[in-house]
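Thread: "does anyone have the structure for this chain?"

Original post by V.I.:
We have the sequence but no experimental structure in hand. Need at least a predicted one for the grant figures.
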Amino acid sequence: MSFSEIAPGIIVLGYLVVAALGTLGGKQRSRARVLSGTEATDDLQATVGEDVAGHPVPTERVARAQRLHRSGTRLRTLAWCLGVVVTLFWGQLALGLGRFLLVLTLVIVVPSVLVFVGSLVGRLRRARGGAPANPSWVWMFGGGAGLFLVVAALALTVNGLAHPLGYAHETRLHVTDSYDGTDSSRRTSTVSGIYHVDGEQRTLDRASWRGPGVAPEPGTVIDLSVAPLWPHPTATGTADSVLLLIIAACAVVPGGALLIGAVRERRTAADTRRSPRATTHSERGES
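Reply from O.Q.:
Generated one for you, tokens below.
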């Protein structure tokens, strides 16, 4: 049984695991809130220690609630990361690397950046007027997009350096079809063919030709490098590696900015939720 035949089962199993981890994490966080007798909140640290009526909660219950809350948060974070990996795998398998990156840029990356930047501007305006901070989905959405971009950039960097540093898998491509676009201003040269990796036959379908000279004729056999990390992009020359590194650089900058912004937004939201409770505590002490 080939990899392409078992890939759909891997995708379905991956999403089932994501759903199970997310559900289990949510239940543990809910149990933590019930155990501590606190109101529902994404920041248990801001509320543990007293119940909604202001009565102290026993220390053992608080400690147990905190452990459950941390465990649930880890499970939900793991579900997010696994969901990103499964979606990457599915999209690349269905569309190919080039089309998949284009779709991600247009459908996920650009809207994520716009939504997150807009939320930050809105938070500044609400902060001036004393309004509540942004809801938790904002920093989760921005953080998820940032994590995706950083992970993708890391994989692209490793694959991009594989060819020039010599740790890519070397094989031979048997060209079955090609198109020479050197005389056309609207189309690039492409090449199709068959190659083998670890005894498994794979196909290259109308991949852009960035090797030296014009695209090889059908029947030609050329050297081909296969990157070690999924989705295992191929390279026929240094230009292919440079392109991967350029894409990685373009992804890591907005990804890092989104992650940093999400962390700051998360801390700001937590501080905002703590401030009113701290004020209430001080007023009770004075009374």
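V.I.: this helps a lot. The chain has five helices and five strands.
O.Q.: and Strands lie at 169-179, 190-197, 200-208, 221-226, 234-235.
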